[in-house]
Amino acid sequence: MPTTDNSYPKPAVSELTPPDRTLMGPGPSDTNPRVLRAMSTPLVGHLDPSFVEIMDEVQELLRYTFQTDNEWTIPVSGTGSAAMEAAIGNLVEPGDTMLVPTNGYFGGRMASMARRAGGTVVEVDATWGEPLDPTAVDDALAEYDPDIFGFVHAETSTGVLQPNVSELTAAAHEHDTLVIADTVTSIGGVELRVDEWDIDVAYAGPQKCLSCPPGASPLTLSDQGMDKVLARDEEPRSWYLDLSLLEGYWGEKRAYHHTAPITNVYALREALRLVAEEGIENRWERHERLAGALKAGVEGMGLEMNASEDYWLPSLNAVRVPNGIDDGAVCEALLEQYDLEIAGGLGDLSGEIFRIGCMGHSARPENVIYVVTALGDVLESMGADVDPGSGVTATRRALEKTE
C-alpha cells in the first residue's frame, strides 16, 4: 500500500468570499446579473449539437455588435489579448511590415506582437493623449508601404477616441494595406461600424462595455483579411490561435480544435443579447449621456480631463491628478473606504491621470454619482484643491437634463 507523505499538509482554504466592489476602472466592469446566471447553467460538450446552435447565435450577435456582415466573426478562447494576438499573429508573417501608432500603451503592445510574429515594425508618430492625424498616417503609409496598419480606436491608457476612422482606412487601402483595429474599449460602448468604416480586422474584449467576464473575446475578419491568413507561406507561430485551424471549428465543419470555454461562451451570448435588446445605437447614446454626467462632475469639482472634447472617450475617462496628490493612494483609499475601483495611469501617463470607466452595466446613474462623490471626498481629505459639493451638483444637473 502507498505510504502517506505528511510533508505536504492539506491546505486549509476558506470559502470564496471576494469583496463586493463597484467597478469603475478601465475594466472589468460590473457584470449584469443575467450574465452571471447564464454562467451557472449546465455544461454541455463543446461539440454538442446544442452548443453548436449557441455558437451560431453568438456569431450572429457579434456581427450585430460589430456592425458587420463578416462571415469570419468569432469569440477567441481567451482574454482580449488573445484576440489581439490572433489578429496580429495571423495577419503579420515574417517579412511583413506593420505600421503602428505611438500615441498610447496599446499601440506599443501591437508593435511587440508584430515583432514576435516576425514582422518589421514602423511607426506613425502621435503624442500620448492625442489621436492619430490622417495626414501623418497617409505620409507614413507612403514612406513605409506597410502590409498592415494597426490603430487603437479607443485608447484605454489615455482616454482618447480616434476620430476620422474612415479617413485612416481609406488611406491605408489606397496603399493596398490591410487595417487592424483595437476595439477593446469601444465595442458596445461607443459608435463602432466595422463594415461602414472599412476595417479589415477588429478585435475586442468582453469585460469592458459588454460587461462580461473575460474568457471569450470578439474578433472579426473581412474576406480580404481571412484571405491573407489562408494564403500564408508559413504557419503562424501559435498553434492555439491559428485562424486557419480555428476555421474548422467555428466554420461550417465544426471540427474539433480545442475545448472551448463553454461557460464563458454562455456569458458572452447573454451579454450580447443585452446589447441587442437595448439596441446598439441606444447603448452608444447611454454611454455618452452617463459619461457626460461623470465628466461634468469631475470638472465641476475642479479637475481637468486629459483628452480634448473633440476626442474624449466616454467609456474611459482620463482625469488629470491634482498637484501634490498620489494617484495610487487615492485608488487605495477608494477601495478601502468605498469598495470602489478606479485606476491610475499607464506608461507615459503613469502618476498623471486617473482612469475612470463608464462601461456597460457599470454605466448607471447611481454609479456615476457614487464615483464623483467618493472621489471628491477622498481628494478633499488628502488636501486637494477640489469642491466635492459642486461636483455632485454638476453631476445631478447633467443627469436631470438627459432624463
TrEMBL record:
InterPro entries named in the record: Aminotrans_V_dom, PyrdxlP-dep_Trfase, PyrdxlP-dep_Trfase_major, PyrdxlP-dep_Trfase_small, SP_NH2Trfase/AEP_transaminase
Protein family (similarity comment): Belongs to the class-V pyridoxal-phosphate-dependent aminotransferase family.
SUPFAM superfamilies listed in its UniProt record: PLP-dependent transferases
The keyword Cell membrane is assigned to this record: no
UniProt cross-references to Pfam families, sorted A to Z: Aminotran_5
Cofactor field: pyridoxal 5'-phosphate
GO biological process: glycine biosynthetic process, by transamination of glyoxylate
Lineage top rank: taxon: Archaea
Keywords, in A-Z order: Aminotransferase, Pyridoxal phosphate, Transferase
GO molecular function annotations of the record: alanine-glyoxylate transaminase activity; L-serine-pyruvate transaminase activity
Sequence segments annotated as region (Disordered): 1-34
Protein name per Swiss-Prot or TrEMBL: Alanine--glyoxylate aminotransferase
Residue ranges occupied by any Aminotransferase class V domain in the UniProt entry: 44-304
Species this chain originates from: Halostagnicola larsenii XH-48
